[in-house]
Amino acid sequence: MKIIRHYFPAVMFTLLLGIINLSAQTNNSWRASEAVIEKLSKDRTSINYHEEKVPAYVLPDPLMSANGKKVSNAGQWTEERRQEVLELFRENVFGRVPSTAYTKSFKIVSKDDKAIGGLATLKLVDITISTAEKSLVIHLTLFTPNTGKPSPAFLLIDNRGPVNTDPTRQKKSQFWPVEEAIARGYAMAVFYNADLDPDKFDNFENGIHAVLDNGTRKNDSWGTLAAWAWGASRCMDYLETDTDIDSKRVAVLGHSRGGKTALWAGAEDKRFSLVISNESGCSGAALARRRFGETLSVINTAFPHWFCLNYRKYNDNEDNLPVDMHMLLGLIAPRSLYVACADEDLWGDPAGSYISLQNSLPVFRLFYPDSTLPPVIPPLNTPVSGGRTGFHIRDGGHNLLLKDWNWFMDFADRHL
Ligand code: GCU
Fold first, then answer.
1. 305 belongs to the catalytic site
2. pTM for the full model?
3. Which of 58, 88, 159, 175 has a 20 to 30 A CA-CA distance from 321?
4. Where are the beta strands (DSSP E) in 54-134?
5. Is the minimum distance from the CB of 299 to ligand 1 under 6 angstroms?
């Protein structure tokens, strides 16, 4: 159990009972720009963007089992505690996937082995999920490098629409830089989250909910983010069958709401060997208890379909949430994890994301004793890594850019 307090001026954090001391901020450690704080505070006066107003809080210990025993080795984590933590997130945050039986089929609807100037093969794959009454199709777009051997892959959960992921490559977007990834030997896969569930509150009448849900919704029934994460796993089902893919080396990633989803997909599905959260913020990498930027009550009000109903119990009541997001990050261990933030995206709390990552390290250390990160928030545009974890804060605003991808690929070169 650790109490974390915040002192001002400067972004300084002291763990009173903790293992990490962020109080020794160096001159070039990242800190939020005063101008950005001022502007955002004016735009939304009810939101806190000031470090000195972050309340003291106590984080649940990821290694403390429900029976009061502390996990001391990797086996105990994998066999017992990991399942407990996963259940806590299902019960209180993302909700549970229904157990309805379904069948799935894969169909390559189009194939071009001369894509990207002959460097890659493009496949458009329909993944059909069916029950006796209904069905749904996930459209997977996949570029694989023409290297003649199975390639590692990035699977992007696209929350910004197909305009960013044009298979013809007439429209190029930094959000999905296929050409650059292919040049570095990576396959690029993407699906559009709305194939699984529309991003609006529709009382769960559409998307995969309409196919798999049965009976009345319960307080722990899955929300839209869990549906998108489930879709990432169905794409993985296909990738496992594609001989152009090295399915032991598949990264799942997403931006913002897609980043929250990528974390949950990686928590639920251990086949993803690298999980990348880009600016996932509240209910993603950032600690809920800090109440900095977007909070639980704000997110549950604006996006009532994203989480399970139980999550609302913690609106303005974060200290009673039985988990915090460092425990979601810990669920990725012993696989690799990268958390990325942006300088001006204080809504997504870069500092809270770094502290969260720091506090997930005790789980990673059960597997890799070298899992340490700098005790202070790293400077802008300076990726850091420790063990199987990585982190950066990019200059600029809320977005997924080539600069982020290049750092992800550098990390993947070492860890995927
Ligand atoms: C909103 C929302 C965030 C989310 C973001 C996005 O800002 O409040 O939680 O991450 O949209 O997905 O772009």
1. no
2. 0.95
3. 159
4. 57-59, 103-114, 120-130
5. yes
As a whole number, mean pLDDT of residues 356-377 equals 97
Spacing, Cα 392 to ligand 1 middle (Å): 19
Domain coordinates in residue numbering, the chain? 2-90, 94-415
Confidence band (pLDDT; 50, 70, 90) for 215?
Answer: confident
Catalytic residue among 135, 297, 305, 398: 398
**94-415 CATH fold:** Rossmann fold (3.40.50)
**DSSP H helices in 128-256:** 178-183, 207-212, 224-239
Residue type, 178: V
Atom of ligand 1 nearest to the CA of 347: 7
Residues contacting 145, CB < 8 A, separation 6+: 119, 120, 151, 182, 185, 186, 187
Compute the distance between CA of residue 170 and CA of residue 148 in angstroms, rounded to an integer.
26
Does ligand 1 lie within 6 Å of residue 226's CB atom?
no
For the segment 180-200, the average pLDDT, to the nearest whole number, is 98
Does 95 score more than 90 pLDDT?
A: yes
